[in-house]
Automatic annotation (TrEMBL):
Name of this chain's protein: C2 domain-containing protein
Keyword Transmembrane helix: yes
Lineage, opening ranks: Eukaryota, Sar, Alveolata, Dinophyceae, Noctilucales
Organism, as annotated: Noctiluca scintillans
Subcellular localization(s) per the UniProt record: Membrane
SUPFAM superfamilies: C2 domain (Calcium/lipid-binding domain, CaLB) (SSF49562)
Gene Ontology process terms (BP): plasma membrane organization
Protein topology in the membrane: Single-pass membrane protein
Keyword Transmembrane helix set for record: yes
Amino acid sequence: SISIFCLKPGEPPPSFQVEEEEGSDDEVKVDDADNLQAGLVVGSLAQMTEGKAYHINVNIHRVEELAKIGNAHPIPYVTVEFGNTLLKTEAASSPTELHNFNVTCKFPLKTPVYEDSIIIKLWHHGWLVRPEPLAQGFLSWSVLRNTSMDARWFNLYGWNPDEVPDIEAIWRTGERILPNCFKGRLLVSARVEALDSDADLK
């Protein structure tokens, strides 16, 4: 590639240094148990870059009218994902048709932000089986930045296990199929909070 500079007479061209950054899963550590005791799940601190600091607050209030899985209701929990950060609520203690979470998932970030989709997933936490996804939905960071979302109910549509026995295997292929059955409804609110300084990014 060719770089073009506008220089004054006798002014040397600028030099560039490329530094490689190595990411590690250990850089993101969230103590879900401690934070959930205060009704808060906090994501990793945003990378320190020039820009405006924000918190995205996604409030998971309540789930109800949950459909049965086989002969029993699910043991629900919720994950909220934005960028490379995934936050998780505690699961209900037993199978239930409704459950109050009352948890705020907080994502610290700084602009520029190149992700827009905030992914909310409802899961069933089986005792002797791997977690089973029940439904998912999306919020928009750019929309929330301009307009907060008051608490509202979202009807949840998932996949009939008789027709789609392993939705995660399908997700891994990159294919997306439309949900085909009602799974319940989830009460969610969300807002973006502009921060005064980087010191508030916590």
